[in-house]
Amino acid sequence: MMNNKNNFNITFYLLIVPVLIWLIFMIVIPHTELLFSSFLVEDDLGDMVFSFGNYIEFFSQKIYWLTFVKTAAYSIGVTLLAFIIAFPIAFYLTKVTSKRNAGFLMLLLLIPLWVGELVTVYGWMVLLGDHGVINHFLMWAGIIDEPLNMLYTNFSMVIGLLYMSMLFMVIPVMSTLQSMDDSLIEAACDLGASKWDIFIKIIIPYSMPGITSGAIIVFMLVIGDYLAPNLLGGKSSLWFTEQIYNSFLTTFNWNEGAAFGFLLLLLSSGIIWLALKLSGQKLEKVGS
Amino acid sequence: MGNILEIKNLSKYFDDFTAVKNVSFEVEEGGFFSILGSSGCGKTTLLRIIAGFQQESEGEVIIHGQSMKGIPPEKRPVNIVFQNLALFPMMNVRDNVAFGLKMQKLNKTEINSKINEMLERVGLLGFENKKVTDLSGGQRQRVAIARSLVMNPSILLLDEPLGALDRKLREHMKVELKLLQKEIGTTFVYITHDQSEALVMSDKVAVMHNSQFEQIDTPRNLYKNPKTAFVAGFVGDTNRFELQSLEGNSMMTQGGWKLQQPDLNSKAKELYIRPEALIINPDHGLENVDQFDVTIKTILFDGSNTKLSTTVNESNEELLISMPQNAQFEGIEEGHKLNVGIHYRDLKCF
User: Fold this and answer.
1) A164-191 per-position pLDDT tens digit
2) Which domains does chain A have, with CATH numbers?
3) Are the beta carbons of A186 and B73 separated by less than 8 Å?
4) For the whole model, what pTM was predicted?
5) CATH for the stretch B3-233
6) Fold of the B237-349 domain
7) Backbone conformation region of residue A202, classed left if phi is above 0, alpha if psi is from -120 to 50, else beta
């Protein structure tokens, strides 16, 4: 009995140590360091003193919190769009097409991930630019006379964000839909439900855990993304991550950057908490 | 009472095989009709065609004298209880049962009174707010039946709904289901591979084999007077012998056992004898009874279902004989010789 317990303990520690190392060195220590430095401000003598100055700066400068609100709003919007586009794809792949086709189509969906975000963003630049593929084609076809201004707008930024995050909505939704027995749909149909009723009352509620975990991943990826807003968004669409980047690397104010980073962490956690509350989902259930 | 459901020459072909082949039958209003067959015989396809989930290739489904051709499942006056029940896991008991009524856009008070009435009938009052995932197998069963019955269908189709339950509960639900059907008077069409379910509950049973109906009859007739070799072998326990030769009124099995039967079919190839049709120690004066000796090899004790495994003397045929558990046969032991009789009408030849 005793021996058994010891064995269990050794295995347990062997398994827990890598996790602990990762958590402590990669997450706890750097974040604690950032948290400390976010409360430090250089005083008139050039010494670092404890202060809420960095946070006060954020709330007193309109540009900062406006960017902050805009980033949050756009992230929520992109998450919704990702759901609207991804759900039919996931449904088609799991319930409509054959298994063999689904595998092939899934492979196609994965291709953008293989080449990396930077390459896909440049790909969109080639497509959407004033002299890009789309404008060129539309002008050649005679539909427009002047090139449409698509690149360096909110539109192109949203496209880039959607493109890189959509797959992370498709996969969790697919896995919940896969576990759904087709007889549920038939039963609803048998009880007189229309196609719309079946979709709204059966399919969506059933796949809610998948949708929620997909939404959390997409939202996190989008709100913390830097490349797409920076390269596709241009000047008019400032993303909060760009503010953080500017603090760290343009103005070299690391303390302010740390404070902004923490605000972003609080913001995204807050929104996810609120979304879970509103949709009645539990984080434990979503994770499984 | 008239026929509520008529199936006329129904066939269903898939690419390379026939699932249902020229099946015809009628179901009386208020009846309990079972379709009994082993898995893969086409019975589920047949049920799905009646429900409207699959299209027939040929033939017709008629409900209330009205052809169902082209009518989608949600518009047919039938409801189905699925094999895996297909309860909506994200809803509680009340919402599951209310689903169909809400689709009909009934008002709240009407829905509530109907749900309460139905839940009371299936004994689930007080469980309204439980999640269906927290219920036991038998309770889930009742929710599924209530969910379909609350729609007040002309016919309730049941696709092996007791399959997932353990033995004890299945025995219990069998009786409960039959009583429920009697009480509410809805026509049930029940699909099963379990002959005991079909025999206990049904008014009429159709035995399905290789996409076709072998026999449609009352449970008693099916058991007593099987029309085909398949039915004789499939329904109930039986002894099966292959016949070697026929001569006039006598026949001989492969193992060399000779038996007499007055109206013997000259083309018969097989002989079926029920274990309980054999009479142990018959009176010697009995008429129309063939008598012979057997030696007991072993006693297969199973309570009221106890059987003797014996060898027929002067042949090498083995014969199972039912042994009633009463005082008369207490002395019977392995190795004993026994005189056994069988009435001519209990020798079923095909």
Assistant:
1) 999 999 999 999 999 999 999 999 999 9
2) 62-287 (1.10.3720.10)
3) yes
4) 0.79
5) 3.40.50.300
6) OB fold (Dihydrolipoamide Acetyltransferase, E2P) (2.40.50)
7) alpha
